[in-house]
Amino acid sequence: MTHAPHELVLDGDPLEAIGAGARVGYARVSTADQNLRRQVDALTGAGCIRVFEEKLSGKNAERPELWTCLDYLRKGDTLVVLELSRLGRSLQDLLSLVSELRRRGVEFTSLHENLDTTTPGGRLVFHVFAALAEFIRELIVDGTREGLAAAKANGVRLGRPPAMTPEQIRHARALLAEPDTTVASIARLLGVSRSTIYKYLPELSANRALEPAESGPPPALPS
Q1: What gap in Å lies between CA 22 and CA 77, rounded to an integer?
Q2: Which fold, 6-119?
Q3: pLDDT at residue 10 in the model
Q4: Which residue spans within the chain are E strands per DSSP?
Q5: Minimal CA–CA distance to 214: which of 195, 187, 179?
Q6: What confidence tier does 31 reach under pLDDT thresholds 50, 70, 90?
Q7: Which residues are catalytic (predicted)?
Q8: What is the pLDDT of residues 12-22, one digit of tens each?
């Protein structure tokens, strides 16, 4: 059963009615901890007037409560999570979400990591995170390019493997020398299509290319 979001009320009116920006919490279950109570208690204790509770793990791409929470936030508000891993599935995902919040004028706080984008130190940490993520991406791209170049220099074939090996092509040519052997029977024997046979054996005559598919079992082939 999904819990309703928690909302702090003072003197009969929600705290968000007060002019100051609100602190809004987001809690999500983890693989190790499926109980949100601890997160909700910590977030309400940190002054959150409302906590959106996500029952789906981070492996699930659909996080409906997160999108509802983001839509609920207004300029001047602060999104609060217990720890960074509760918001983003990866560093890139986290940076993307926080950057979008900052663009909208919404701040971000993570209690366990003591990160707060309302402070110069907190903003600096996220700038470092962003620079680190970009650096890692460049390393991956450079490493991939160097690996491809080295493989090509060593004669490694890149891309999809061929449908027929040189040995299969030689075998097919030898079988075609037999007068009663058909392209269809060779294709079945080698586990490829007739069009593949024609592709790798371009010397096949036009009348063989027009040969109809066989309806019966293939003839006996020489061993």
Answers
A1: 5
A2: Rossmann fold (3.40.50)
A3: 36
A4: 6-7, 9-10, 13-14, 23-28, 50-54, 78-81, 107-110, 115-116
A5: 187
A6: low
A7: 30
A8: 344 443 346 89
